[in-house]
């Protein structure tokens, strides 16, 4: 295309000519490369997602796959679409069982070229972007959180748009702030978070919706509540106490909570979370009235969770040693999510309430001996 060659030539000349005696600017190659999807004869570029009539099953790439959710989602998707149609990726070496359970590759979301090659070589059609630094970890290392959560997202958006992918990026209760309505918190309201994690997630929501409206990117996003899982250790989130209590209850019979006993937050068992992710990805486009949805299952406080745990382990000792940074974060977050739109648009419905959650966690963690002793 003539316009592509002209733009590439002009960009190259600008980059190679130092201005005002300064050193030449270092600009990523992707900023001066063009594709038929990025330059069209019209005033606006137009990206188009792959039609599912063109393929039997989606070919899925999951970034940040060794986190709390990636392995579980890969297992769910492989059951539905086939083992070889779901590729798990991360920058860490996977455990043996994960490595042998299905395709796994190294993928660094900050390496645009590597990520693009993976998408092209594996003919990816769905991309699930789980790579992120969580709330408490992000506050401890803001530059890294900014790079991973924002710069990495930009790479994902550009590649998803260029190659017509269906893109899922999770958001969070952390996308809201102290000026947001907290009980309940609707889909659309003032957000204004005060953590780099929350700011990056609002950025992801808005950028994804912008790419959808501007370029036709099939962007889909769910705001997750606190996710509780027996399969993974806490990973630096403010709601981690709701996982840690089960491990400590079984191991030592003692639990020290870093949030105040009356701190109410929305929560969800991981199976509900993963199922919601699959359901929104499979939902027909015409059913989606928006691109970012709240989803919810239950809301509880540390003392309410402890009381439910003590029904099975009456001897559990719970103390409180407040982490002021995490408490400030929790106090700025929703107490309860309004997920009416998700329930009405694509039929979202949770399976696990608090009693079922506690029983399921103990079943997985293996507390039978301690419960038997307590009985």
TrEMBL record:
Pathway membership: Amino-acid degradation; L-threonine degradation via oxydo-reductase pathway; glycine from L-threonine: step 1/2
| Catalytic reaction equation(s) | L-threonine + NAD(+) = (2S)-2-amino-3-oxobutanoate + NADH + H(+)
The Gene Ontology biological process annotation of the record reads: L-threonine catabolic process
- Enzyme Commission no: 1.1.1.103
Q: What InterPro entries does its record include?
A: Epimerase_deHydtase, NAD(P)-bd_dom_sf, NAD(P)_epim/dehydratase
Domain NAD-dependent epimerase/dehydratase positions:
60-295
Q: Name one GO molecular function term.
A: L-threonine 3-dehydrogenase activity
Q: Which CDD domains match?
A: TDH_SDR_e
Q: What does this protein do?
A: Catalyzes the NAD(+)-dependent oxidation of L-threonine to 2-amino-3-ketobutyrate, mediating L-threonine catabolism.
Family, similarity comment: Belongs to the NAD(P)-dependent epimerase/dehydratase family.
Question: PANTHER family of this UniProt entry?
Answer: L-THREONINE 3-DEHYDROGENASE, L-THREONINE 3-DEHYDROGENASE, MITOCHONDRIAL
Task: Spell out the protein name for this chain.
Answer: L-threonine 3-dehydrogenase, mitochondrial
């Amino acid at each position: 295309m003539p316009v592509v060659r002209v733009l590439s030539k002009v960009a190259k000349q600008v980059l190679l000519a130092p201005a005002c005696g300064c050193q030449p600017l270092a600009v990523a190659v992707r900023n001066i490369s063009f594709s038929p999807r990025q330059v069209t004869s019209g005033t606006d570029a137009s990206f188009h997602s792959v039609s599912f009539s063109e393929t039997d099953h989606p070919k899925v790439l999951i970034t940040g796959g060794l986190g709390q959710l990636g392995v579980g989602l890969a297992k769910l998707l492989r059951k539905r679409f086939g083992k070889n149609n779901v590729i798990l990726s991360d920058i860490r070496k996977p455990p043996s069982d994960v490595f042998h359970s299905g395709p796994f590759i190294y993928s660094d979301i900050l390496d645009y070229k590597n990520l693009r090659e993976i998408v092209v070589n594996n003919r990816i059609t769905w991309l699930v972007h789980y790579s992120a630094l969580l709330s408490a970890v992000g506050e401890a290392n803001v530059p890294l959180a900014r790079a991973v959560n924002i710069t990495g997202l930009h790479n994902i958006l550009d590649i998803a748009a260029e190659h017509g992918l269906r893109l899922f990026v999770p958001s969070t209760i952390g996308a809201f702030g102290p000026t947001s309505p907290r009980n309940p918190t609707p889909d659309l309201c003032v957000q204004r978070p005060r953590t780099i994690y929350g700011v990056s997630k609002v950025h992801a929501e808005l950028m994804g919706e912008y790419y959808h409206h501007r370029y036709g990117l099939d962007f889909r996003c769910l705001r997750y509540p606190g996710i509780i899982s027996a399969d993974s250790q806490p990973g630096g989130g403010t709601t981690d106490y709701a996982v840690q209590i089960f491990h400590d209850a079984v191991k030592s019979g003692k639990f020290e909570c870093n949030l105040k006993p009356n701190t109410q937050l929305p929560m969800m068992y991981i199976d509900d979370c993963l199922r919601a992710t699959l359901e929104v990805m499979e939902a027909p486009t015409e059913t989606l009235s928006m691109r970012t949805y709240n989803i919810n299952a239950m809301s509880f406080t540390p003392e309410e969770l402890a009381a439910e745990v003590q029904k099975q382990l009456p001897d559990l000792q719970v103390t409180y040693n407040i982490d002021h940074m995490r408490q400030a974060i929790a106090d700025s977050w929703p107490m309860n999510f309004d997920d009416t739109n998700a329930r009405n648009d694509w039929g979202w419905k949770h399976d696990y309430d608090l009693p079922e959650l506690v029983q399921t966690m103990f079943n997985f963690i293996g507390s039978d001996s301690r419960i038997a002793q307590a009985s």
